[in-house]
């Protein structure tokens, strides 16, 4: 006998925060054009590096918006039994690749400039850096509310966090270049921005790979789940347990529950589903209840 939560999640976390992504996208895309033009006219590598990362922000936010739309699209093929929710995880993976790509580009360009006597206009750096900081702070406040619930929104949020640091770096570079007349500060801060972006990308990438690798969700230990299900009255053994994340806010589990003689399978199933829902927050748990005299599971090879 098997069962699962028929109600399912009321909605995925990314879709609930779609409006945040939309507003952030408009703000960031508009400012990117301003920053890119200023970077090209001022000769600032720090400003150009920040514009490059801002471009990654635009793509990442756009991909996140597309992913939330795909995730809510009804399956017409009958083959996507889990829906298209994983699109949001792939969008987060794209954000990781973009962040790493921008970091490498900044580092290569900065190293190429070492020893050069490039002239950098500090005033445009300060003006655009300050404006960028305002735009990024607004975007951060918009995305912060959904970053803890959706990996998709978190990817966009971390992009903007890194870009906020970039804006601070641009302002610092502008001040230092203006005060010392030495363009080396522009290159040094550009390298620092690249390192910061790379570290954030790696941390987010680990989360994305954990979801795609179907690892147990953070804070949900398989041993704890096994012990809780084994404590359900009538259950004598728990095996073949799998717990993973479909997308942010949507954890899934499957397990086989062995029952002793006289145990009511319907009651065991209801109690076990209640444990998964109330204690572990797993709404979609497929549980197979079978008597302890059943030996069929021993034939499973993986």
Task: Tell me about this structure.
The protein is of the alpha+beta class. It has two domains: 9-212, Alpha-lytic protease prodomain-like (Up-down Bundle), CATH 1.20.1510; 222-299, 2-Layer Sandwich (Alpha-Beta Plaits), CATH 3.30.70.1350. The protein contains nine helices and four strands; from the N terminus they run E-H-H-H-H-H-H-H-H-E-E-H-E. The protein has a four-stranded mixed beta sheet, with helices on one face. Strand 2 (235-247) and strand 3 form a beta hairpin. Helix 6 (151-180) packs antiparallel against helix 7 (184-212). The longest helix is centred in the middle third of the chain and has 30 residues, at 151-180. The model is unreliable at 1-11 (pLDDT under 50).
